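This part of the workshop introduces the protein records we will be handling. A learned vocabulary of local backbone shapes supplies the integers on the structure line. Getting from the letters to the tokens is the skill we practise here. As an example, a complete record with its sequence and its structure tokens follows.
=====
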Amino acid sequence: MKALQFHGKEDVRVEDVAEPSPQPGEVKLRNAYSGICGSDLHIYFAPEASGMDFSEPHPLTGATLPQILGHEFAGTVAEVGEGVTNVEVGDEVAVWGIYSCGECGACEKGLPNACEKISFHGVYSDGGGMAEYTTVTADRLHKLPDNVDLKMGALVEPMAVAWHAVNVSGAEAGATALVVGAGPIGFGAYFALKAKGIDKVIVSEPSPERRAALVAVGADHVVDPINGDLAGAVREMTGGRGVDFAYDASGNGPAFLQGIDLLGARGLMTVIALHEKAVEFNPTMLVMREKRICATLGYLQEVYDEVIAAMAEGKYDFTGWVETTNLEGVADAMQRLRAGRAMKILVEAV
């Protein structure tokens, strides 16, 4: 079968690899779409900063390079292994792809997404979504309802990243919020906040194309933080009090610091993005108004069900900011995404 394999920094190749067969408890999927994620960009352009040591076999999966990419994916059940009863051939599913050890402090707390040895299917594992087929254990599968198609299914994973961040922050209806960065995770944070009844949401984004795309799906308060007056917009929306919650979906140091500055008393900044560069700041900027910072990684499995339900209820609009490419187009897509010339790109596996 055809698969997109990562061999090292800025080196991906479409190659013929062996077609997998499901073992007991596993399912073979015919992959449909797989999203290119910000994490994929880190892996492709700066693998040393990705959090994965590709020089050694992964301690949980035993995987080594080359690696089939694609951890944001959906597909159709093509074959079921012995003992599988929760899905059947023909079911369309999204895949929760986290691998965790079950033994570390995070896992003991019920946080497999923060496992000390974490990996993801399609990051450092046996297979991924950017191939014609892959096999996964059946307990990772989440069925898609009739009104959630396979393209939307491939977007469950990135939307779950943002939904989980909003869950962890504790934001509730009536709060005010600032989303820093309008990439796919920023879009996801906006949709999650709105779905939870938080109507006063400002999104900060310097790219005019991304601002326009967000306005097109219904956002009322989208501000250019460089040429616009973001602080003024926050003052107007909050009566000068500052926002209750901010979400860093930018991975940009100055934008992150600006978000902290615009928090109100006991406001909470939740960091979702990966930062390739260190950020220097004086913690006293937190102390004087008891501001707080937390961070989130990935999602818990139940978040997939919450996001799929929200999609089925029409809480997401992917019009105008999601496009597709094929396996041969991935390297170019990586460059376009890195340069900010695209929003979200799904890779057609076949």
